[in-house]
């Protein structure tokens, strides 16, 4: 059992409802883990910034335009926890970059989870407006990866 195996077990336990775990391996190694019972439970919520509203009518019109532009953007979110990669290998060109036009089903990036490279495909046609995550950053389930204008 190496460090990566232990780290994976810890991550899996942290993401599960298991309170304790005892494992005995064939080589005689024993592993015992217990979660801290004083954890505060709750539901994580995505915090979205509110649009700034000014009193004069010109500012209201600008805010409406920004809101309309924002509504045309679609987010591609991470379907899993892992490491985000913009390209298939360190020296390769990125799959996509800001300003690129993409088609539904086109590979946008890779998320590595448990030593498996998972290709993330576009769910719709459009233009990449923003790459929300930096290469090699950790992402959680539901993390916005790209904003695409249809």
From TrEMBL:
PROSITE patterns: BIOTIN (PS00188), BIOTINYL_LIPOYL (PS50968). Keywords: Biotin, Fatty acid biosynthesis, Fatty acid metabolism, Lipid biosynthesis, Lipid metabolism. GO terms for biological process: fatty acid biosynthetic process. Pathway: Lipid metabolism; fatty acid biosynthesis. The keyword Lipid biosynthesis applies. GO terms for cellular component: acetyl-CoA carboxylase complex. One of its GO terms (molecular function) is acetyl-CoA carboxylase activity. Residues 73-149 form the Lipoyl-binding domain. It holds the Pfam family Biotin_lipoyl. This protein is a component of the acetyl coenzyme A carboxylase complex; first, biotin carboxylase catalyzes the carboxylation of the carrier protein and then the transcarboxylase transfers the carboxyl group to form malonyl-CoA. This is Biotin carboxyl carrier protein of acetyl-CoA carboxylase. It comes from Candidatus Merdicola faecigallinarum. The gene is accB.
């Amino acid at each position: 059992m190496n460090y990566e195996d232990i780290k994976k077990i810890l991550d899996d336990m942290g993401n599960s409802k298991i309170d304790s775990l005892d494992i005995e391996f064939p080589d005689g190694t024993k592993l015992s883990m217990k979660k801290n019972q004083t954890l505060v439970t709750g539901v994580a919520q995505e915090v979205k910034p509110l649009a700034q509203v000014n009193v004069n009518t010109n500012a209201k019109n600008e805010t409406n335009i920004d809101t309309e532009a924002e509504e045309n953007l679609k987010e591609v979110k991470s379907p899993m926890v892992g490491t985000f990669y913009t390209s298939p290998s360190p020296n390769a060109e990125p799959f996509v970059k800001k300003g690129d036009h993409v088609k539904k089903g086109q590979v946008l990036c890779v998320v590595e989870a448990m030593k498996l490279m998972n290709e993330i495909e576009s769910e719709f046609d459009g233009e990449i407006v923003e790459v929300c995550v930096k290469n090699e950053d950790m992402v959680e389930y539901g993390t916005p990866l790209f904003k695409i204008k249809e």
